[in-house]
Amino acid sequence: QLLWVQHKKSWRDYYTEEELAHGRRINIRGALGVPLFAAWYFALAALLGALSSALGGPPSGLGEASSSVPAPILALRAALAVFAIAAFVLQASLLPPNASEDIYHAQTHLGAWVFLTRHCLMLQAVHQVATLFAGLLRSVYLASTTTCISLWMAGLGWFVTIQ
Known about the structure:
Number of helices: 7
Radius of gyration: 20 Å
Number of strands: 0
Distance between the termini: 42 Å
Largest sheet: none
Helix content: over 70%
Order of helices and strands: HHHHHHH
Structural class: mainly alpha
């Protein structure tokens, strides 16, 4: 029992100082990518909304914005937003790679944003939060934005689940 306690190591003991500094840089780049991908979500939604309007599609989300969303639906949206944010945070808080791994060098410039999974989880989190606020604020803009991009977001969710 005493021998085991003496050899117990922290996760930091498995990394060199250079690798720990690399991990800190990955976290900084990860934080910088969040607002960029939030803006990317709304740019994609605007593009899809314009495409839908050009093709003669109905204005989406207007009925929801003019009426109140039932409390159970808002509770479900809140739970989905919490789960989506938690999934992104969990993926973003993974331990950094060691210098002997190839991904260590791949993450030098973009950090963990080299993974398509991170893109999908971030866009899913933004979508769930925007959907929640569309119902809470009765926002026509958010309701139409989240409605026109929902199938695309569902496709990203399927991708992350299946991969």
